[in-house]
Amino acid sequence: MTDVEVVERVSDKTWEPAVFNLGQALRRMGRYGEAAACFARCCSLDPGSHAGYSALGLARHLDGDLDGAIDSYHEALSRKPEDPFTSEMLQRALAEVVTYPPAMEGLLGGVGGAVPGGVRAGGIGSSILGPAATGRVGDDVEMTF
């Protein structure tokens, strides 16, 4: 049985911190899909917690699922609107989905990387986030990515 299969069977809320920590470990190993499954389970175990949604957003974001990331960031901010980490990551995700029309390409010059049909903002991998960057996810939850 895989880690994710075990996590999917968890139904007791007391296991939420362990599932969250497993998700963090999987995310740090670059296993974003599995991390997202853990964080999604955290959200179902504790739907009122913003940290699970914020972490789910980050895992989806890193996995390239921008729409899912944006949805998760919005869910997190609906629970804790003043969270600076989630607000920043939402802004980055929204910037990544913005595609400018080809007519703007000449005006924008070196902004972002060229993509078919326009210019797109740089992805999260090209951002200032390095492997040792740290962001606050919750009141007492620190997330290193």
UniProtKB/TrEMBL annotation:
Keywords: TPR repeat. Pfam families: TPR_16. InterPro entries: TPR-like_helical_dom_sf (IPR011990), TPR_rpt (IPR019734). Gene3D superfamilies: Tetratricopeptide repeat domain (1.25.40.10). SUPFAM superfamilies: TPR-like. The lineage of its organism: Eukaryota, Sar, Stramenopiles, Ochrophyta, Bacillariophyta. TPR repeats lie at residues 16-49, 50-83. PROSITE patterns: TPR. This is Uncharacterized protein.
